[in-house]
Amino acid sequence: MKSTTCLISTLVTLAGASPLQPRQLLDFAVLDAAPEPSVYQESIGEQPHTVTYDLPAATQAATAVPLPVAKRDIEVKRDDSCKALPKGSGPVPSPDTAQAFLSFPDLINTAGSAPVPVGYFQTFSNEQGSTSAYGYSGFSTLATYDTAECARRCDNVKSCSGFNLYYERDPSYVPGPGCEDPESNTVIKCVYWGDYISAGNANNKGQWRSKFQVVIAGSNGYMKTRIPSVSGYDGVSLGDASINAPLDCLGQDTYMGAKVFTTSYFDAGLCAAACASQNDYNTAHPPETGSPKICQFFVTYMSQKNGRSEGQYCALYTKSWDSSYATNDGQWRGKDHYTNNYAFAYTNKNYVDNTVCPAAAPA
To answer: Of 132, 168, 195, 355, which residue is the least packed, with the fewest Cβ within 10 Å?
Structure first.
């Protein structure tokens, strides 16, 4: 758990009249103060399912000062030794070993030639690890390695922003006394994620179950190309860069500050709720001089540290900025590389820029 002590002071600063920082680089104080994201790996023998998140609780987290630090508890169940496991539909190499599985041409070639489904873009191909990320939303098994079918299923899961499709070498029976190294079984898994999935977080390389080695092959990742809709806002995609806005023509900094969410899944609506809540707070606590800062525009993305999710980042602004200012593609903090992935910008539909700029001096 990250410290919550500096979280309170950070959010108080956000609510005040002055910005947290002069520019919009990652605010490491906010990232450090946020709860650790819930990163999930599905267990062997787990049955296909989907995950439902408590959106009212997530929205409350977006509007609370300070943010709650509750985390999702994950219960992992183990079956009895030698109990039969569900049979997969993928091919099994000969010899039936983990090494043969990882180099099996049937798996490598199928994953390498799999078409990118409509409405998605590919983020990695043919990795030997499955995704461990934020916003786990469940999985299903497929009869064939079918990217279009996996995409269709992802589209039917509200929290799914992308999916990981792969072959998994599983035991046919739960390994244990009397069946320490059973024959293998190739399961084709379609796993749903509410996070940005990349080669960096395709780091679940498998495990040992007694004397049986579970491994992954043909692991491909795909993300949706659509711009998530947010009521009352117009959105645009920024790719993998966030806004780095200059001072406006009056020399004012329009950046208000940032919030990070770590206990749900990627949902741009959380930032809209934070924007509205901040406006309520600022209106109720106006500065001694001038008008309170009103959030009209926000940028949201998944912040990753060395490929591992840090959470959903929201940067709030008083003014809308176009995508030409999306130049912040991450930064280094010592040896750690932070990236801004799956970024979107949203402008309040009722926003009107009433800034009156000084007249240019005659030439």
So the answer is: 355
Contact, 232 vs 297, CB < 8 A? no
> Rounded to an integer, what distance in angstroms lies between the CA atom of residue 14 and that of residue 6?
12
Phi, psi of 131 (to 5 degrees): -75, 135
The whole-angstrom separation of Cα 200 and Cα 131 is 9
133 DSSP 8-state letter: B
Q: Report pLDDT for 75.
A: 41
d(CA 220, CA 235): 28
Distance of CA 324 to the CA centre of its chain: 24
Q: Which position has the token pair 């999306």?
A: 326
For residue 292, is the peptide bond before it cis, meaning its omega torsion is within 30 degrees of 0? no
- CA–CA distance, 298 with 319 (Å, rounded to integer): 9
Tally: H helices and E strands in the chain: 7, 15
Q: Is 45 left (phi over 0), alpha (psi -120 to 50) or beta?
A: left
* Count of positions (residues) in the chain: 363
Task: Please write the tens of the pLDDT for every residue from 257-279.
Answer: 999 998 889 999 999 999 999 99
This prediction has a pTM of 0.81
Choose among 226, 222, 248: nearest CA to 237: 226
Give the integer Cα–Cα distance in Å for 9 and 1: 18
Q: Please choose, from the candidates 86, 91, 127, the residue with its C-alpha nearest in 3D space to the C-alpha of residue 107.
A: 91
